[in-house]
Amino acid sequence: FALQITGVILLAVGVWGKLTLGTYISLIAENSTNAPYVLIGTGTTIIVFGLFGCFATCRGSPWMLKLYAMFLSLVFLAELVAGISGFVFRHEIKDTFLRTYTEAIQNYNKNDERSHAVDNVQESLSCCGIQSYTNWSTSPYFFKHGIPTSCCMNSSDCNTQDLRNMTVAATKVNQKGCYDLVTSFMETNMGIIAGVAFGIAFFQLIGMLLACCLSRFITANQYEMV
């Protein structure tokens, strides 16, 4: 039951990660948006196999308990590798985000998914551009429409004419760039997810050891009875 609870926690973290970090992850790489679904799938699988573990315990079946322990060991190793990889390659993730966010600004058109993600980031974090609002001056979108309205400090005090003029826009838009804010935000929240994942992995390690011990105990009792 304790392991099923960890599965529910992992499932909840996956859903929370999708809702909270989905926009930011989509700006790193399109394939990375699958990460929350991996947590959701893993949590669901743990819940299902938790029921299998309860059934194996009630039946007193050594081979079922060994199968359950093997499953837990695979999940434990997968989580351990994922956690270590995320820590080792965290700087590469930052570099990738810088590159893809720059591309998103250069290809910004206000309509596609990446453009919506950029607007979401700029509005939710009250930032503009990569290092500052001046990064928009090199975007093709700027020459036609000016800086996006998602950069405005006060949407009611922003108009297209002002946003086309960098000097005037400087008094209308947020001054902070998004890169430092996004990476700091993601590090904080990814740290929470990593902490939960390692905590769950620890419980899985205990469950694996207990399943093996119970399997041996049942096998030894059956041998003595014979």
Automatic annotation (TrEMBL):
Disulphide bridges: 128-151
Spans through the membrane: 7-29, 35-55, 67-89, 192-218
Keywords: Disulfide bond, Glycoprotein, Membrane, Transmembrane, Transmembrane helix
Membrane topology classification: Multi-pass membrane protein
Primary location: membrane
Annotated GO CC locations: plasma membrane
Compartmental location: Membrane
Presence of the UniProt keyword Transmembrane in the record: yes
UniProt family annotation: Belongs to the tetraspanin (TM4SF) family.
Function: May be involved in cell proliferation and cell motility.
Protein known as: Tetraspanin
Organism of this sequence: Regulus satrapa
Lineage of producing organism: Eukaryota, Metazoa, Chordata, Craniata, Vertebrata
